[in-house]
Design a protein that fits this description.
single chain, mainly alpha, Arc Repressor Mutant, subunit A, two-stranded antiparallel sheet, 61% helix, 5% strand, elongated
Length: 110
């Protein structure tokens, strides 16, 4: 069964924020503000709360992330096993696209 058939490569309408959230959580559990800060540190882009929490809700509904118990008002999340597999699948697909793009750039230089 392909990744597309299992839904592991379908991050929904907000694919980029979802991917960045999974990458952030691959480092360990984080709450929303920490995820936002991490994404900004890596990409230079700061997503608004609507984008962040919409993507978090979709990732949680797909079983890619889950909430972690917290002693304060923060709501941390962590990557699930399925989320780790989805991230690996998506990164492998992006790597294949990057390789093709680089080959084409080199082939058409000059």
């Amino acid at each position: 069964m392909s990744a597309q058939q299992t839904g592991l490569d379908d991050f929904g309408r907000f694919a980029e924020p979802a991917l960045l959230i999974l990458i952030s959580l691959a480092e360990g559990p984080k709450h929303g503000y920490a995820i936002t800060d991490d994404i900004e540190a890596v990409t230079g882009v700061r997503h608004g709360p609507g984008t962040l929490y919409g993507a978090l809700a979709r990732l949680e509904s797909r079983g890619f992330i889950e909430p972690v118990e917290s002693q304060d008002r923060r709501n941390p999340y962590r990557l699930t096993g399925l989320g780790r597999k989805a991230l690996q699948t998506r990164l492998a697909a992006l790597e294949a696209v990057m390789k093709a793009g680089r080959r084409r750039l080199v082939a058409n230089e000059g």
